[in-house]
Amino acid sequence: SPVRGAAAAVVNGTPRGGNSTSSSSDPSAARVLVRLLCSGRTAEVRASCLTPLDAAAEGALGATHVIGAFEALMLTDGRRQAASCRTAGAEQFGHVELGELTPEVLAACVSRSWPEAAPGPETGLIWKLKPYFVDWLQRRQRLRRFSQLTVAMPDEAAQRNHLGTAPGAPALLDVMLGLTERDLLIATLLATPHGDHARLYSLAAEVSTPLPLAFPKLQIPCPLSAGDPADVGGSYAERGVCVQWEAFAALLARPSEKPLMLSLGAHGSSQGGKSALLRDLFGLDAVVGEAAPRHLVPAGGMGAHASMRRGSPTHAPGVDLLQNSAAWTADVHGCALGDPDWMALLATLSATSSFTLVHVSAEDFLVQSEDDRPMTSPLVGKSRRPGERTRNGHGFGSDPNQSHHSGSTLRITIRPDLLAVLRIVVDARLPGFGPSGGARVLALLRDAGDLGPQLLAGVRTCLETVLGSAFAGVCAVDRLTSLAGAHRQRALVGLRSTVNQELAELSASSAPGRRLPCAEALRQAFDHFHARLTAPADRQVLAPSPSGAELSPESRHGATLSALLDEAEARARGLP
């Protein structure tokens, strides 16, 4: 069925196709009107056939308290600070910062941002550090050197209250030590006027810094007064995802000659080392989300503090764009299905991707015997945390070869969240946009060493059925957890060979649409997919192009720029 497993939005929840009496007597007969994300068509489906996609990427988010502490430390009073900079006409780019940021200077910046007598920060720390960060980028230096300064900062500078009064709220030093280069670039981006976002990312790209395309929406808190509650944060459902298309306006002013490779997974592969694998396979400087120290995770902290397991407050859900000599790579962190911004972004990246690496694990599949008896697996009929491993390292049951003992054949199905991701990867297409033949999709089955041949064959059949002609195969990696050095490289030999073969075929292919479109075209495609999820039932979703024609990978400004560059090149060669 073209509707089965497809991501869709309910545009009319009123039961249809029958009178109210029949609908109330048989709730399963109620039908609702949905709009499909990938095709844009509407369809009537049984309400009982819908599976809600949870908007909260549990276990993969910047924590309620950790991300709130990051906002309080870095962004407090940001609106007033931004207005003051605009009034003063402050220009950071092109300015040479004569002072040097040392541990002592950093301690002084913390003291000015958060006086000892104040209950919390009075101004965001980023406003004190931004001149140094911009100067570093202009001098071709990475922002990751900030962590060395934090380690060497005097202890007395960190003697402050916890950033929040709730149990488990992190201390100032813990938050600063957990900041990554990505967090600092995001804070600098938010403290930079919109007109300079593209300039900031151009500088960051020159030092090969991963560029955040999407990250959790951040709030700008007000300074605390004495007696005010110091609780900071807010649930992820209230935040959503922020997508920064304008920051790529200079880097992608014209379509790139390089194709796009997409690396992503569903909830089952959250915190599964997807970014670390990109480092191993392609040498990309991908951002790896490290786990928070044990003392930051409260005892039994898998509830409201579950996401404190990740040190970086803005790591996931998010997307980074990286580039090397061969391709652009979209590195997807976490999964936030149910968020319209996140799903529209996945559809946009899938529509233009030429090669997709999907990370799957045993937790992404369900197993039943042929007589419909559920297996004695904790994954069947029991709620689990995304990315959680079972005691024996796989997710299919207590015995991966149980069918050999029971004499029954196993029936393997894909969990709804992974099925939705796969359908988006395969079906998200726009006329004239992206590769004409669609993307090749390679699945990586993690930690598959304990799975029997029947289960492996069932997983392959499930993926091949959903992906169809886009299916490029399944690479089963026995074990990557806790492997390092030569042992890890040995385990990746087969996967590296398969990926290199796919990329070689992609480079040799002459199919049109293999290059990454410009930022303006990507934004138009994103807006179109987003409208399919959010437009009401009585509103028609318009074509992504303002003219109603096929979406062009090049914008009008990009075409003008190309003509000027061609003219300049011709003059340089002495041509008429």
Q: What share of residues are in beta strands?
A: 5-15%
Distance between the termini: 59 Å
Task: Provide a count of the helices.
Answer: 18
Which residues form runs of ≥5 with pLDDT under 50? 15-23, 57-62, 292-310, 375-395, 397-406
Total number of strands: 13
Mean pLDDT: 80
Helix content: 25-40%
Q: What is the radius of gyration?
A: 25 Å
Q: Let me know the largest β-sheet.
A: 8 strands, mixed
**Overall outline:** globular
Sheet with the most strands: spatial strand order: 5-4-7-8-6-9-12-13
Overall description:
34% of the residues lie in helices and 13% in strands. The chain has 576 residues and is of the alpha/beta class. Helix 11 packs across helix 17 (519-534). The longest helix is centred in the last third of the chain and has 17 residues, at 556-572. Mean pLDDT is 80; it is low at 15-23, 57-62, 292-310, 375-395 and 397-406.
Key traits:
18 helices, 576 residues, globular, 13 strands, eight-stranded mixed sheet, single chain, 34% helix, alpha/beta, three-stranded antiparallel sheet
Short description:
The chain is an alpha/beta fold and 576 residues long. Helices cover 34% and strands 13% of the residues.
List the SSEs and their pairings.
Elements: E1 8-16, H1 20-25, E2 31-36, E3 42-46, H2 64-75, H3 78-88, H4 103-113, H5 126-138, H6 146-151, H7 172-178, H8 181-190, H9 197-206, E4 211-216, E5 241-243, E6 260-265, H10 274-282, E7 318-323, E8 328-333, H11 340-352, E9 355-360, E10 365-369, H12 402-406, E11 410-414, H13 416-427, E12 440-445, H14 453-467, E13 471-476, H15 485-491, H16 493-508, H17 519-534, H18 556-572
Parallel strand pairs: 6-8, 6-9, 9-12, 12-13
Antiparallel strand pairs: 1-2, 2-3, 4-5, 4-7, 7-8, 10-11
